[in-house]
Amino acid sequence: MAKELPTSRLARGTKLGMAVAGNALRAQKTRRSMRGRSEAVRARMAEESMIRATEQMVMVLGTMKGVAMKLGQMLSVLDLDLVPPEHRERFQRRLAVLRDSAPSVSFDTMRAVIEEDFGKPLDEVFVDFEPEPIAAASIGQVYRAKLHDGRTVAVKVQYPGIDAAVRADLKNLAMFRRVLQSAMPWVTPAVLDELRLNLESELDYVAEARTQRQIAELYTGHPFIFVPDTMPELSTTRVLVSEYFSGRGFEEIRALPDTERDRIGEIIYRFYVGSLFTFNEFCGDPHPGNLLLGDDGRVAFLDFGLFNRMNPEHVRFEITCIRAAAEERAEDLRDLMIERGVIESPEEITAEECLEYVLAACEWALVDQPLTITPELASGAFVLAVDPRATEFAGMKQQNLPPEHLFSRRADFLTFGMLGQLEATNNWHRIAREWLYGDEPVTELGKVHHEWLRTRPAPEPTTPPKKKTTRKRTKA
After folding, report:
1. How far apart are CA 220 and CA 207, in angstroms?
2. 375 and 420 in contact (C-beta within 8 Å)?
3. How far is C-alpha 59 from the chain's CA centre?
4. How far apart are CA 54 and CA 77, in angstroms?
């Protein structure tokens, strides 16, 4: 019998509170038992205690869905050095549960959601509907079905009560941070605020269907990127119907030879990061469960509940800052960040500290040589950027990244995390120069991508002029 999803704020808060209490008691017990032990034994016990605490957090996240599930998905993409290397494989297997396993919600229960939203029996909408889900998302399950006109479709259905669960999670954000702090110190107020701003929008499948259709149209005819079209006329608040795409999942992709993984890594980078600087819009949820590799070599991108369109001015600001960092123009970079309001206490942050902070976060895309992205590279940059107080760049605790930039940086870091999981190699800087400097592409994928771009209506340009940024001085 399927477990009922707890939806009230009290029930979900209590679940988290029990996890906090359990961790606190475990830590106290471990500290007491450490007295008189050797350094080696103490270190091993502390390590084991930390692993147990982290695994408990994973289990809590995996049973809650909603906001907790989203945080767990972020954790599963970024190997945040939470556990020692010799235990990392076991920990990653546990995290894979958050990413890949279908929850135990019966088909009869999910069928009731579909029929309630459509107001008619299932067989009046679909000629065939497979009862076993083919995938699981943070707020729903995906099924394969066939329409009466013969088309095979993917049907994403929300878990019953997930809307109440997500809203309860949003009210419990303060407790989320207390629960997750021991395992995930990067869960800062800014990260939680960003989730609060964007996660509730995922509950509206009608809006998501419209968004996905627009992106599918944007990428029509692309040589290696595919976005399945949706059927808005068959989509409701809790049911989203789209084209079905048959392909291999992320774990199968990870097992491919180096050259194939490198190619897919470049496609992922171009879609999740390059689209911001090309089209002023991007998917805010880079995640291994949201892509499939087709037999024809195209990569299909799925799930557009978290999608953002940025003001071209804000995109230009990001380009200008990245270029300043790439060219090591520390004073210019600091001036830009002060003017934008990112740095609120200029007297506490030197230009060199500002430059080193930005480079530590994004230098992987500024190194002009082939670079293999590892999980350690990705996690180190992420932790530094979201929680600089734990690093040598303590002055950056005064940063105040505006929400629109926090959202884009989150997408950037999660993309970096995916590339780390693939251990993909490329000269990422040469790819990035296409949108940072307007350079001609040097990779084969870049060349066919730009051939395709020339067939599209010209987007509003975002690349600033190729000249040194003028430094602005504050008035005395």
Report:
1. 20
2. yes
3. 20
4. 15
Q: Are 320 and 464 in contact (CB under 8 A)?
A: yes
Instruction: Name which of 282, 286, 367, 283 is nearest 322 in CA terms.
Output: 367
| 201 pLDDT more than 50 | yes
- Residue 307, φ and ψ in degrees, nearest 5: -135, 145
Q: What angle do CA 434, 437, 440 make, to 5 degrees?
A: 40
DSSP strands (E only) in 115-261: 126-129, 135-136, 140-147, 152-158, 225-226, 239-243
What is the C-alpha to C-alpha distance for residues 234 and 217, in angstroms, rounded to an integer? 18
pLDDT tens for 130-166 read 999 998 777 889 999 999 999 999 999 999 888 887 7
Q: How far is CA 5 from CA 10, 139, 159, 164, 466, in A?
A: 13, 11, 9, 10, 55
- Considering only CA atoms, which of 72, 74, 94, 73 is closest in space to residue 83? 94
Helix, strand, or coil here: 157? strand
Is residue 424 a contact partner of residue 266, using CB atoms and an 8 Å limit? yes
21-25, 235-239, 383-387: range with highest mean pLDDT = 235-239
Q: Report the amino acid identity of residue 395.
A: G
Q: Are 195 and 71 in contact (CB under 8 A)?
A: yes
Dihedral sign, Cα of residue 454, residue 459, residue 460, residue 461: negative
Q: Is the pLDDT of residue 34 over 50?
A: no
Q: Could you tell me if 136 and 103 are in contact, meaning their C-beta atoms sit under 8 angstroms apart?
A: yes
Q: What span, in angstroms and rounded, lies between the C-alpha atoms of 427 and 371?
A: 6
* Residue linked to tokens 């879609």: 271
